[in-house]
Amino acid sequence: MSTNFNLKHLLGIRELSADQITHLLDTADSFRDISKREIKKVPALRGRTVINLFFEPSTRTRTSFEIAAKRLSADAVNISVSTSSVSKGETLLDTARNLEAMAPDCIVIRHSSAGAPQHLARVCKAAIVNAGDGSHEHPTQALLDALTIREHKGRLEGLKVAIIGDILHSRVARSNIYLLSKLGASISVAGPGTLVPPEFAGLIEQGVLLERRIEDAIVDADVVMVLRIQRERQTDAFFPSMREYAVQYGLHLSHLKLAASDAIVMHPGPMNRGIEVASEIADGGRSLILEQVTNGVAVRMAVLYLLAGTGQDGNGASSGESISDVEESRAAGGVRGRTRKAKRGTRN
């Protein structure tokens, strides 16, 4: 069934409808096979420019967006903030306007301040993609998590998902709560009392249940999602020591006995091995951590394809159109364009 995607920017999951989320996941599904080909490239975004503007250190997300752009044949440009004009005092708005003057089609931004992508979206013509803003949201991480769950479970509706760890500082938790709730999953969260704020009780109407003990959250869970301790965002001592955290709130094999027999384990990475997740779980058969990384490329290809490709020309992405259709259309368009140019040269 076709869906009216109708989205200029991807700033968060909260403002997306269930149909838009499903369309993004379905589109990402069609891109997964591209990564298995001998030649991992399609011409879907040929001639487009994607700028990765990262104000925070990142390996997985930035590399994933860069690979995604290149596999779509877009030109990918990485901006290192430490060597940019920002380090000389230039404001985010001035940086955005200078980049906009170079006519990019999409700007992917990660920033330590919540709301930075929304700020850019108000002033930029280019599509803006939120690659994580402060403790607010990380939409593409939630999408790749959902794609991974759907691949293994066949659905999201009706599943129980336990989210364990640093809820307070986690943009991943927020985006996953919004997405999973919209698609019919039930969610339990647990962690140290200092890291699971009472304000999350306001999300109970979306299906979120706060538990004091991680064991209670994990009981009968189909998915156990462990969060990274956001030490770079913690200004206070939220727990006595990393060792105590590992004992009280780290995921161990004994915990998985409480979950569903076919429960899967996920982590957004990078993980503090042996603290948040025991090594035997991280390397075990239930762990989908590396599959999440693989699916991250497909999801980001889908996001760039739908935002940077839609409405730009007659060969852009449209609702219900498969990637193979666009590949053929763009390839044919390139041949026709070269043919017309040759004929003009002959007449002259």
Question: Would you mind describing this structure in some detail?
Answer:
- The chain is α/β, with parallel strands linked by helices and 348 residues long.
- The protein folds into 2 domains: 18-138 and 293-336, Aspartate/ornithine carbamoyltransferase (Rossmann fold), CATH 3.40.50; 141-288, Aspartate/ornithine carbamoyltransferase (Rossmann fold, 3-Layer(aba) Sandwich).
- Helix content is 39%, strand content 13%.
- It is built from 12 helices and 9 strands.
- It has helices at residues 18-32, 60-71, 92-100, 116-123, 139-153, 171-182, 214-218, 242-249, 253-256, 279-282, 289-308, 323-347, and strands at residues 49-54, 75-80, 106-111, 127-133, 160-164, 186-190, 208-211, 223-226, 264-266.
- The strands form 2 sheets. It has a 5-stranded parallel sheet.
- Helix 6 (171-182) links the parallel strand 5 and strand 6.
- Helix 1 crosses helix 5, helix 2 packs across helix 11 and helix 5 crosses helix 11.
- The radius of gyration is 21 Å and the shape is globular.
- The N and C termini lie far apart (49 Å).
- Mean pLDDT is 85; it is low at 311-316 and 332-348.
